[in-house]
Amino acid sequence: MATRGADGAAPIPVWLLVRGLSRSTAHWGELPQALQAALRRQGQPEARVLGLDLPGNGRLWRERSPATIGAMTESLRTQWQDQQRALRATLADRPLALHLLTLSMGGMVGLDWARRHPGELSRLVLVNSSLSGLAPLHWRMRPSAWPTLLRLLALPVGDRACERALHALTSREPASRREATVAAWTALRQAERVSRPNVLRQLVAAARYRVDGPKALAGLGLPVQVICSAGDALVDPRCSQRLAAALGTRPVCHPQAGHDLALDAPDWLIEQVTALAD
Predict the structure, then answer these.
(1) Name one GO molecular function term (predicted).
(2) What is the pLDDT at residue 1?
(3) Assigned domain for 75 exists
(4) Among 62, 135, 209, 272, which residue has the fewest nearby CB atoms (within 10 Å)?
(5) Pairing verdict, β 12-18 and 252-254
């Protein structure tokens, strides 16, 4: 956790945004820019908002996805160290406070980072995440979602049809905006060809990562915020309730949004996140 610099200067908040299964930084849409603007209005003009991709996703789509969350954590941490050096070159060696905003499987990576490297994170936000050892499989991935996911993994499906199916599974966005989002996601799919083997390895990593009950999350030593969506058709919100209880906090739940809360209710999500910002 960052402390004040030798000259007493407060650390500069750096928000690192991490998505989940097969998704990239670009799938955050306009949220990074909106979060940056909100922090500026809040009196944090020096705050930075960055996005990094997990191996096999986004800009790293050519890389092989690790089959463990731990390996994903170390890749992300190495990327952050590179970013940190670049930031320090422009910020006169001011101390940095690293805040992770994570979605879905990205939350597992965030928790793993906090557990593996105590003191490196200043804050962690977990959105619609889940953990084996706290929640059963049929909560972590609703059975109603299995047929769609199996079809997309096992059968040849066109890019647009695939993204339309994923949108139906992860979003409750109004019909008036749906086609524009599907078109944007289709363009991303065509530019960032995440392979089926990489998706399978990510699924294996998420399934294998577990904690040995609530006590395993005690004493992380940093503020953790748990946020979920009541309309999530992919992950049961009870996963977030169990996670929050293990972390000694209470979840905040959007009453209508789907799994992709950053898409369905970005302003609401930013309001929750900045309400506790330094």
Answers:
(1) hydrolase activity
(2) 58
(3) yes
(4) 62
(5) unpaired
pLDDT digits (tens, 9 = 90+) for 227-259: 999 999 999 999 999 999 999 999 999 999 999
**For residue 140, what are its two tokens?**
């972590």
Domain containing 86: what range?
Answer: 12-274
For residues 124 and 187, give the distance between their C-alpha atoms in angstroms, rounded to a whole number: 31
Asked if the structure places residue 154 within a domain, the reply is yes
The CATH number given to whatever domain includes residue 121 is 3.40.50.1820
Number of compact structural domains in the chain: 1
List, for the chain, all residue ranges whose pLDDT scores fall below the cut of 50.
5-6, 278
Contacts of 151 (CB under 8 A, 6+ apart): 157, 165
- Do the Cβ atoms of 16 and 50 come closer than 8 Å? yes
Q: Is the pTM of this model over 0.85?
A: yes
87 falls within a domain: yes
pLDDT at 88: 80
Tokens 């060696």 belong to which residue?
Answer: 93
> Could you tell me which of 249, 5, 4, 257 has the C-alpha nearest to residue 125?
249
The strand pairing partners of 126, in sequence order, are 102, 226
Distance CA 230, CA 215 (A): 26
